[in-house]
Design a protein that fits this description.
mainly alpha; rod-shaped
Length: 80
């Protein structure tokens, strides 16, 4: 908005500034929401994978006897 319009239009300039701020805020919050949702889903995925790798997989392997097979291939682990 040109400077010569400021006096003539009264509060319109402040309204324009508000609209511009509102647009910038909505745009930044939109982008922030995208990154927040990505971070949230990544956090859940990371937690799930850690649960799978460190909790479930060893139990499944133990039930299948894979750990016992590995231990027997190492020889007697309790030998002094």
């Amino acid at each position: 908005m040109p400077a010569r319009w400021y006096g003539r239009l009264g509060g319109t300039d402040s309204h324009q500034k508000w609209r511009r701020r509102e647009w910038v805020w909505s745009w930044t919050s939109f982008v922030t929401n995208i990154f927040e949702s990505i971070r949230t889903w990544y956090t859940w995925l990371d937690a799930f994978l850690c649960y799978e790798i460190y909790c479930i997989s060893p139990l499944v392997a133990y039930r299948r006897g894979e750990f016992q097979n590995w231990a027997s291939r190492q020889g007697n682990l309790n030998a002094k």
